[in-house]
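Reviewer 2 asked us to include a model.

Predict the structure of this chain.
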Amino acid sequence: MDLIYWKDTERTGMVFTGLVVGLLSLFQLSIITVISTISLGVLCFTVSVSLYYKILQVLNMGDGVHPFKAYLDLDISFSGELADQYTQKTIVTVVSAANSLKNLFLVGNLFDSLKLLALMYLVTFLGVLCNGLTVYFCQSNDVCFSPIPLLMFQAKVDGFFAGIQAKIDNVKDILHRIAQGGGPTPDPTPGGAKPKTQ
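Predicted model (structure tokens):
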């Protein structure tokens, strides 16, 4: 919560800048490349600092304490009870999700399955317009803290919503024509004359 309320501006700025840079890099590169590059950067930093402290120890200018000793000594193991509690919560969540998906895909409730079908149909148009990371980036809480990324992608967002509105209008038109008897689309040219092509 301290990050969200900007209580420590330097720390919050570093965290949110890192998140935005990570999201921007995922736009251009694969997740494998991003993870491997971040891992290389962290390893280069930690190995360099460790070697620097070793050299200081050899030259008798340092106390020989490992530079990351405080982090290495942190206990991140679970107690048996805590591990059991998290395992039970995970199992209940997975089983509940599997049961819901089973009912949706195997038509346990026709209305819910039709809603999922319509949603997946609309999601295919969403996938054509932009990838999921673009939607996440535009809706991300991290980006909401800074207006600059929103301004940078305003044209993309407007184009995205215009495309969705066009698809919705098209579906409405098709449903309206079906309700009216399913005739062909009326010819917009007067008298039915076809425009000349050159």
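The radius of gyration is 28 Å. The first helix runs from residue 9 to 28. We have added this to the supplementary material.
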